[in-house]
Structure formats: C-alpha cells, structure tokens
Recover the amino acids of this structure.
C-alpha cells in the first residue's frame, strides 16, 4: 500500500502541473482504486482489498479536486458502470464489476467531451483482458453533451 500511495502522490503533483498548464490533457489508465461504493457491485465483499482502502480513495478525490473531470461519471451520473470483472469468480456473467479504469479530462477538454463509455461486450470474448475497453470521444469544437457546459 505504501508504494501505491507514493505513486498517487507523484501523480497528484504532476497532474497539478498539467492542470495549471491549461493544455487539453487526459489522464487515462487503471488506477487500481474504486472511488466510491457506487463503483463496485458489492463493497462489503471487497472492503479489505487495496482497491477500496480509504487512503487510496482519498488520493483519487484529491486528484479529481484539482479540477479534473471524471469522464465516465460526468457522462453517466450515478449509473453503475464497471470497467473490470474478476475472471476467477466469473463476475462478468453476473454483472458483478468494479470501476478501476479512469479517464480524467482537464478543464480545457470538458466543453468538447461528447461521449465516455466502456465496451463491456469485449470482456465476453475468448481470451480477453478482465478489463473492458474504456474510452472517450472529444469533438473538434465545443459540443459537449454534459449538462450546463
């Protein structure tokens, strides 16, 4: 856990530089953190897992609070949307997922964000990753589908 928190601190520090630059930036990847209980099918069964620890969740909150927009959450509100399904427990077929892959967009991109999705169907193909492809669409102009933008 110590390494994970150290990684998060370095990311938070560098992300602040990126936000202050004003450039259009996307921070994309598997952060290995489930931000809220709404981002997991059953938080009780994973409570001791590193993905749900309060320290890493706090780091994720601090990152987003710099001014980053969580694209999936912005486009889907409180809808349960997952990016990962455990193979060992056959969770995909039961729709028991977690959201640990994140696409954070800088303020310069928010007005151009038109879509954010997870292609969960890919997870059902043979020999695929336990993560579904997670993507965003950015328009060339200011055409956001976000309310109030």
């Amino acid at each position: 856990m110590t390494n994970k928190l150290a990684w998060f601190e370095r990311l938070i520090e560098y992300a602040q530089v990126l936000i202050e630059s004003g450039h259009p930036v996307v921070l994309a990847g598997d952060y290995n953190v489930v931000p809220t209980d709404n981002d997991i099918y059953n938080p009780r069964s994973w409570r001791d897992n590193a993905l749900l620890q309060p320290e890493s969740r706090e780091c994720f909150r601090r990152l987003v609070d710099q001014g980053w927009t969580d694209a999936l959450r912005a486009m889907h509100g409180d809808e349960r949307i997952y990016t990962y399904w455990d193979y060992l427990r056959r969770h995909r077929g039961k729709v028991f997922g977690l959201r640990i892959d994140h696409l954070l967009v800088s303020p310069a991109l928010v007005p151009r964000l038109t879509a954010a999705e997870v292609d969960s169907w890919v997870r059902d193909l043979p020999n695929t990753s336990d993560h579904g492809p997670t993507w965003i669409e950015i328009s060339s102009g200011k055409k956001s589908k976000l309310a109030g933008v």
